[in-house]
Amino acid sequence: MSLLVVLAALTGCTPTCEEVCDKLVACENAGTERMSSAECQESCGDQRVLYNEDWDDGQKRDAFDAELTCLFQSECGEIEEGACYDESVWSY
User: Fold this and answer.
1) What is the pTM of this model?
2) Looking at the chain, which terminus has fewer C-beta neighbours within 10 angstroms, N or C?
3) pLDDT tens track, the chain, 92 positions
């Protein structure tokens, strides 16, 4: 487990879209086939704005944060098997 994963787990901070997208690209785009890190980050950021500002949807915001945390903390194989998939928030 990397130091960043341990720190994120200990502090309870949600990983950023950049951190998650960089990880997905490093996992050979697990779940984001044919997307660059920049495209993933843009989509992820748009989704965050949608839940936080446009809709003010606390339930979806919490589910989205949980998904980002799961993606960041999971191994590539786990992600590819759908360990973090949540159909209510999956979009990027």
Assistant:
1) 0.76
2) N
3) 444 444 444 446 899 999 999 998 888 855 556 778 899 999 999 998 888 887 777 888 899 999 999 999 999 999 989 889 888 886 65
